[in-house]
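anyone seen this seq b4? input:
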Amino acid sequence: MPSGVELGQEFQAKAMETACYLVNRSPSSALEDKTLQEECIRKKPSLSHLGVFGCDAYVHIRKEK
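predicted toks r here
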Protein backbone atom coordinates (compact mmCIF):
# COMPACT_ATOMS: atom_id res chain seq x y z
CA MET A 1 0.00 0.00 0.00
CA PRO A 2 1.23 3.53 -0.71
CA SER A 3 2.17 5.50 2.38
CA GLY A 4 -0.63 7.59 3.79
CA VAL A 5 -3.32 5.21 2.52
CA GLU A 6 -5.33 3.45 5.16
CA LEU A 7 -7.48 0.57 4.06
CA GLY A 8 -9.32 -1.61 6.51
CA GLN A 9 -7.81 -5.05 6.86
CA GLU A 10 -11.07 -6.59 5.63
CA PHE A 11 -10.53 -4.89 2.24
CA GLN A 12 -6.82 -5.63 1.72
CA ALA A 13 -7.32 -9.11 0.22
CA LYS A 14 -9.92 -7.77 -2.22
CA ALA A 15 -7.60 -4.91 -3.18
CA MET A 16 -4.78 -7.37 -3.97
CA GLU A 17 -7.15 -9.63 -5.91
CA THR A 18 -8.34 -6.63 -7.93
CA ALA A 19 -4.73 -5.54 -8.63
CA CYS A 20 -3.85 -9.02 -9.96
CA TYR A 21 -6.99 -9.09 -12.09
CA LEU A 22 -6.10 -5.73 -13.64
CA VAL A 23 -2.43 -6.62 -14.22
CA ASN A 24 -3.51 -9.68 -16.22
CA ARG A 25 -5.68 -7.43 -18.38
CA SER A 26 -3.16 -4.60 -18.84
CA PRO A 27 -0.85 -4.28 -21.85
CA SER A 28 2.78 -5.31 -21.30
CA SER A 29 5.80 -4.15 -23.28
CA ALA A 30 7.28 -7.64 -22.74
CA LEU A 31 4.34 -9.03 -24.74
CA GLU A 32 4.54 -6.36 -27.46
CA ASP A 33 1.73 -4.34 -25.82
CA LYS A 34 -0.61 -7.32 -25.58
CA THR A 35 -2.26 -8.40 -22.36
CA LEU A 36 -1.38 -11.67 -20.65
CA GLN A 37 -4.95 -12.85 -21.16
CA GLU A 38 -4.80 -11.90 -24.85
CA GLU A 39 -1.55 -13.82 -25.27
CA CYS A 40 -3.00 -16.94 -23.62
CA ILE A 41 -6.44 -17.13 -25.23
CA ARG A 42 -5.81 -15.05 -28.40
CA LYS A 43 -8.68 -12.70 -27.61
CA LYS A 44 -8.64 -9.14 -26.21
CA PRO A 45 -10.24 -8.98 -22.77
CA SER A 46 -13.37 -6.89 -22.32
CA LEU A 47 -12.97 -4.08 -19.82
CA SER A 48 -16.53 -2.78 -20.07
CA HIS A 49 -17.51 -4.32 -16.71
CA LEU A 50 -14.85 -2.45 -14.72
CA GLY A 51 -15.80 0.33 -12.34
CA VAL A 52 -14.11 2.73 -9.94
CA PHE A 53 -12.56 1.22 -6.81
CA GLY A 54 -12.94 3.61 -3.90
CA CYS A 55 -14.73 6.93 -3.81
CA ASP A 56 -14.41 10.55 -4.88
CA ALA A 57 -12.48 12.88 -2.62
CA TYR A 58 -12.74 16.64 -2.45
CA VAL A 59 -10.45 19.26 -0.96
CA HIS A 60 -11.94 22.13 0.98
CA ILE A 61 -10.09 25.39 0.32
CA ARG A 62 -10.91 28.15 2.74
CA LYS A 63 -12.17 31.40 1.23
CA GLU A 64 -9.17 33.38 2.51
CA LYS A 65 -6.86 31.27 0.36
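Residues 53 and 64 are 34 Å apart (CA to CA). Helices lie at 9-23, 36-41. kinda curious what u guys think
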